[in-house]
Structure to design on (283 residues):
């Protein structure tokens, strides 16, 4: 949530700087970059709101918690990227067909500063997203990273226009058009993990294997089957069938199921709920 707050503040400052520099410096690629930063502000607000809702405990109306809000926020951010890319592409094509001034050379200095700041922000947010396993935070980091790409494309386009002189005015517009395709690609790429979380797709194989190994580490467990794992927000929910000695008492079976839950949670702290169904072992 602090990463999202930082993104809001940084993007607000950069959007204002890029918009003013783009208008005054006759650089549409910089204006398009400002639009992308504005989308970053909205995406960070959405991520912040999604994480705030996801952090709320379970209640009577939501017995399984509010974790889905985190995945919804990630999906919304991805869709926003695609919409922003379409808007930038339309405006870039319009600018290519419209004669205009050569961009000012000083706008390149603005872009260098923007690229450095956004790259540092993207790396920090991505690190936090990877550590927490947050789909929304990783999507927000990708959004910041796409801003770096648009700024780099704008730098190349404006440089060509400034060096080439008259006749090369549209170079920065072509750069903005190229950046729009990159942004759209990132949006499509980002929406998949969010949809996977919403559709209860099985997590990565190593996550499932760690849970299976933890369950089998209990001495009284003879076998496991029907292991189901789904991600809910920043945590995982586990359902599995555990097979034990058929002559075991109900009380002892209950003790075994408790040990299985404890072992899984110890091996995977991100696991929140574990539902164990005990069955008699039949070789």
């Amino acid at each position: 949530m602090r990463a999202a707050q930082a993104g809001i503040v940084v993007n607000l400052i950069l959007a204002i700087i890029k918009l003013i520099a783009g208008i005054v410096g006759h650089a549409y690629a910089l204006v398009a970059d400002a639009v992308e930063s504005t989308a970053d502000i909205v995406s960070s607000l959405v991520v912040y709101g999604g994480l705030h809702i996801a952090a709320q405990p379970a209640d009577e109306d939501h017995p399984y918690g509010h974790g889905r809000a985190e995945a919804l926020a990630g999906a919304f951010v991805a869709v926003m990227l695609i919409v922003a890319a379409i808007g930038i592409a339309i405006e870039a094509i319009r600018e290519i067909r419209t004669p205009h001034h050569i961009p000012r050379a000083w706008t390149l200095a603005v872009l260098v500063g923007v690229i450095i700041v956004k790259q540092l922000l993207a790396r920090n947010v991505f690190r936090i997203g990877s550590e927490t396993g947050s789909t929304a935070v990783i999507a927000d980091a990708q959004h910041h990273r796409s801003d770096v790409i648009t700024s780099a494309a704008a730098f190349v386009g404006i440089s060509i226009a400034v060096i080439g002189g008259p006749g090369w005015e549209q170079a920065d517009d072509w750069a903005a058009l190229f950046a729009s395709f990159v942004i759209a690609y990132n949006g499509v790429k980002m929406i998949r993990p969010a949809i996977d979380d919403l559709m209860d797709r099985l997590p990565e194989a190593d996550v499932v294997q760690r849970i299976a190994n933890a369950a089998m580490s209990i001495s009284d467990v003879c076998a496991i089957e029907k292991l189901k794992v789904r991600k809910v927000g920043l945590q995982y929910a586990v359902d599995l069938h555990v097979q034990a000695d058929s002559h075991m008492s109900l009380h002892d079976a209950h003790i075994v199921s408790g040990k299985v839950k404890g072992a899984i949670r110890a091996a995977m702290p991100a696991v929140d709920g574990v539902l164990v169904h005990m069955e008699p072992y039949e070789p």
Observations:
- The first helix runs from residue 2 to 24.
- The two ends are 50 Å apart (CA to CA).
- The CA atoms of residues 14 and 85 lie 18 Å apart.
